[in-house]
Amino acid sequence: MVQLMDSEVFMAFTTYAAIVVLKMLLLAPMTSYYRITRGAFSNEEDVAGKSAEEKKKLLRTHPDVERVRRCHQNDLENVVPFVMIGLLYALTGPELSAALLHFRLFAASRIFHTIAYTCALPQPSRGLSFLLGLLVTLSMAYRVLSAALFL
């Protein structure tokens, strides 16, 4: 375990994994902020104590809220696999420069994806950032399979 903690690749992985996980976690309070400021709630208990008329107005969807919520869902579908594959990738002993390239590209793609999603940038900006992150994860998965199965 001590040897792993001394690995520059592993330390780089933990740094970039922490960055993308923190970014993903920040989307939850961002969603709450948008719900409150846009007056758009999805559950009855969120508007408890309000009059029936106020509940009708507040129990609705709003494009800004939905955009952030979908971005968060997309992060769950992409960041979690990156963390799992990235850990295995770091254990294969890749060159530091190659590992940094993978980790930095993934982190940059997810940060840009969040900006593109929340700011409603025109396509293909969001699609390209998603694709870049996916390709990085697939590249690391290939390395893991190559090392483990001698492909």
Q: What are its keywords?
A:
single chain, 151 residues, mainly alpha, Four Helix Bundle (Hemerythrin (Met), subunit A), elongated
Question: What do you see in this structure?
Answer:
This protein is mainly alpha-helical. It has a single domain, classed as Four Helix Bundle (Hemerythrin (Met), subunit A), CATH 1.20.120. Helix content is 79%, strand content 0%. The protein contains six helices and no strands. The relative contact order is 0.14.
Backbone structural class: mainly alpha
Give a count of the beta strands, DSSP E runs of length 2 or more. 0
- pLDDT averaged residue by residue: 90
Main sheet: strands, sense, barrel: none
Distance between the termini: 27 Å
Envelope shape: elongated
Number of helices: 6
Q: What's the CATH C level?
A: Mainly Alpha
Q: Report strand %.
A: under 5%
CATH topology: Four Helix Bundle (Hemerythrin (Met), subunit A)
Going by CATH, the homologous superfamily would be: Membrane associated eicosanoid/glutathione metabolism-like domain
**Helix percentage range:** over 70%
Which architecture name does CATH use? Up-down Bundle
What's the SSE pattern? HHHHHH
| Low-pLDDT regions | none
CA gyration radius, whole angstroms = 19 Å
Q: What is the number of independent domains? A: 1
